[in-house]
């Protein structure tokens, strides 16, 4: 979701505050927010989207994603590729709504909220939220009053936030924050989190060897569970960074 709104359209939201919002085909701006946007995808977003479309993650990346190195970001960003239709429309939006709705990205679920999260050196996670009051959106005249917790529960955000937050110690690693760029190995491991099918194949054929022991039960789980594989990849990257 876009965050380049004028300050008067973005306001901090505390956990006990409520807001009104609803989106459905009867809203006149329905699906407008699915156009003219830059949507960065997390590894978990790609896991869910590729599964919904019955594609391997690598195939999904080839068909629907753009990988770009953005100034100020240590690792490449993966963006959803928009259609060249004059409106930069999401490839999954239709007149009836989102055709991947059950597995839509976390940013889409979070809107009209924006969420920021970070961890302190003691490992405590902190988060903050803002309300993105885009002037063109009529959804703020719809639905019931609700708070952050209610909205997150309704949008099934718990698993998205939990998995995405597991990457925070990596993205906010002191070495990277001090301006030291990631190594080629670290970038390769990071991108493998988006291409879990390739990552799994390399583990199985022995072309990649984990830097820590993996039990036989874990090997069996990694062979069939993408989420377990993603978490091993995150653990792997954390281990490599810690060894610097």
Protein described:
The chain is α+β, with helices and mostly antiparallel strands and 244 residues long. It folds into 2 domains: 7-39 and 82-158, no CATH class; 171-242, no CATH class. The protein contains 11 helices and 10 strands. The chain has a 3-stranded antiparallel β-sheet with strand order 1-9-8, with no helix packed on it. The radius of gyration is 19 Å and the shape is globular. It starts with 9 loop residues before the first strand and ends with a helix.
Task: Write the topology of this structure.
Elements: E1 10-13, E2 19-20, E3 40-41, H1 43-53, H2 57-64, E4 65-68, E5 77-80, E6 93-94, E7 97-98, H3 106-110, E8 113-119, E9 125-132, E10 145-146, H4 148-154, H5 158-165, H6 168-171, H7 174-177, H8 184-192, H9 196-205, H10 216-224, H11 226-242
Antiparallel strand pairs: 1-9, 2-10, 3-5, 4-5, 6-7, 8-9
Helix pairs in contact: 1-2, 8-11, 9-11, 10-11
Question: Can you describe this structure in just a few lines?
Answer:
By secondary structure, this protein is of the alpha+beta class. The chain has eleven helices and ten strands. The chain has two domains: 7-39 and 82-158, no CATH class; 171-242, no CATH class.
Unreliable residue stretches: none
- The coarse silhouette is globular
Structural class: alpha+beta
Distance between the termini: 35 Å
Labels describing this entry:
244 residues; alpha+beta; 3-stranded antiparallel β-sheet; 11 helices; 38% helix; globular
């Amino acid at each position: 979701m876009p965050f380049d709104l004028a300050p008067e359209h973005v306001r901090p939201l505390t956990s006990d505050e409520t807001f009104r919002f609803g989106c459905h085909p009867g809203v006149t701006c329905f699906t407008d927010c699915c156009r003219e946007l830059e949507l960065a995808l997390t590894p978990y977003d790609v896991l869910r989207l590729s599964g919904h479309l019955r594609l391997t993650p690598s195939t999904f990346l080839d068909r629907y994603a753009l990988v770009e190195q953005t100034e100020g970001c240590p690792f490449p960003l993966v963006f959803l590729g928009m259609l060249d239709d004059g409106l930069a429309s999401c490839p999954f939006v239709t007149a009836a709504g989102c055709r991947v709705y059950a597995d839509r990205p976390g940013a889409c679920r979070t809107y009209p909220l924006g969420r920021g999260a970070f961890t302190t050196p003691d490992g405590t996670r902190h988060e903050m939220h803002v309300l993105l009051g885009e002037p063109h959106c009529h959804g703020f005249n719809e639905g019931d009053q609700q708070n952050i917790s209610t909205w997150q529960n309704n949008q099934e955000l718990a698993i998205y936030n939990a998995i995405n937050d597991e990457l925070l110690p990596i993205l906010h690693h002191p070495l990277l924050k001090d301006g030291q760029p990631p190594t080629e190995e670290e970038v390769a491991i990071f991108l493998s989190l988006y291409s879990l099918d390739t990552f799994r194949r390399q583990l199985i054929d022995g072309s990649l060897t984990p830097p820590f022991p993996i039990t036989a039960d874990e090997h069996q789980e990694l062979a069939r569970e993408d989420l377990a594989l993603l978490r091993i990849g995150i653990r792997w990257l954390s281990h490599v960074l810690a060894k610097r």
